[in-house]
Structure formats: structure tokens, C-alpha cells
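Notes from the 1:1 (GR / supervisor)

We went over the backlog. Supervisor wanted to see one worked example end to end before approving the batch request, so GR pasted a single chain during the call. The sequence is below; no edits were made to it. Supervisor asked that the structure be written out right there so they could see what the output format looks like.
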Amino acid sequence: MPQMAQTKNTKKKSNTSSKSKASSKAKAASEAKKKPVRREICAGVFGLLGLLTLICMFSSDGVIVGALNSFFKGCLGYGFWIVFIAFILVAVIQGFHRGRPVALRTVAALLLPIFIAAICDLMFGKLDFVSGDAMPAFIGDLYEGGKTMVCGGVLGGLLSYVCELAFSTYGALLILFLLLVVLLMIALNITPKKIKEWSKAREHN
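Structure output shown during the call:
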């Protein structure tokens, strides 16, 4: 009788273990089926935006292309010329994430045109904020100046103005350039460790 009880217990355990394995496999299969495709959709959207902004660089005809041309130029001015690169980079980051977190890389890639616009505004900008002028009027001037490519637009112009106010022109240029390098490294997933490994590999070769 004890042996019969033991065999029954072992059968019950094996049945429960097999049931748990089957349920875990079913859960894994359902999770695989329900795998979110938000990043892939995001990659497609930014890829389309990158294509449209590339067209904007050569033409401003059409309602959509003309509106995008005016909007991105007004917001970024000089930085408009690399907006399509930032969008394509975001599309690549989102499309080939391989399950890794890429939010920081995406934000870094989208900030690149703003920082380039601010740096170019400090070096080549032709609009200055005069104390006593109304800030909304200055923002309007930046938007119009961005469309005619004489400043860094609203975003680049305001960033350069704040940095210049805080650190002087040369200090602002240095800080913005260093931050631009950091953003590039984050967006391209380049770390000091990888740079060290690449340098060692080149030395051995």
C-alpha cells in the first residue's frame, strides 16, 4: 500500500509539472504573438518624415512639403539641413532595437539638429535680441529668420541666446560643441569602452 501511494504521488507530481510546463509554453507563445510593434511603427513614421524632409531640401512645392519646409526652417534655421539625417537615424534606431531600450538614443538623435542650429546661430546668426524688446516679437523674428536661413530658428536661436547669456559667446560655443559630441556618441551607441577596444584592436593590427 505505501508503494501504491508513492507511485500515485509521483504520477500526480509529474502530471502537475507537465501541466505547468505546458502552461508556461502557452504563455510564452501568447506573449510572442502579442509582441508590441510600437517601435516598428515609429521607425516607419520617422523614415517617412526623413524622406519628406529630404524632398523639402530640394523643393517647397505642394501643401504638405511646403508646410514641412516652412515649419522645420522656422524652428531650426541652419539645423534644417540635417533634420532628415536625424529622422533616418531615429528610424534605424527604432527599427533595429533588438529588444534593447533605445529611448535615450532616440532623444539624442532628435536633439542633434537643435544643437547644430544653436552652434551655427552663434557663429553666423544675423539676429540679436535687444534688451527691452518683447520676447514674443523676438521669437517671431527667429521663426521668420529661420525660414530665410539667417539664424538658427526658434529652437536653435533661443538655445544659443540662453547659452550666450550665461557663458559668453566662446563659452557657449565650447559647451554646445561638447554637448553635441556627447549626443552623437549616445545616438550612435558609442561608449568610451568601445573607443578603447577599437584603439586596442587598431594597435594590434
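Supervisor's comment: Residues 28-34 have pLDDT under 50 and may be disordered.
Batch request approved.
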